[in-house]
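lol ok so funny story. i was supposed to be doing the assay writeup but got distracted and ended up predicting the structure for this chain instead. priorities right. anyway since i did it might as well share w the group, maybe its usefull for someone
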Amino acid sequence: MYQTEQLESELNTMIQQGEILPAFEKFYAENVVMQENSEPPVPGKAANRDREKTFVDSVQAVHGIKLVRSAANGDVAFGEWLFDVTFKGGGRVKMEQVSVRQWRDGKVVSERFYYNKG
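and the output, tada:
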């Protein structure tokens, strides 16, 4: 049986170390559905890989990625994040977001991000 807390900890550690794309490959299911706020959900690992890669490629410098707090209950996990990044062609941005992940068979099958678009 997969332990959500352990998987969540491993995934979050990789993200904090800036290993966003390797973490995505390791922990996300082929049928994952991801959603930003109230935007339409994006189904499939390939489409979401492209979205993650676009985000990573848009970052010029990472000044900090911090998991403020997290919790897991059953196969659902929550994380409150602070990102401090400088975007290419843009300025330095400090972002706060909450992620909600649904796990199944050791993989993330659903993730939704909540944040203020400013």
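Helices lie at 4-16, 20-27, 45-58. The radius of gyration is 14 Å.
back to the writeup now i swear
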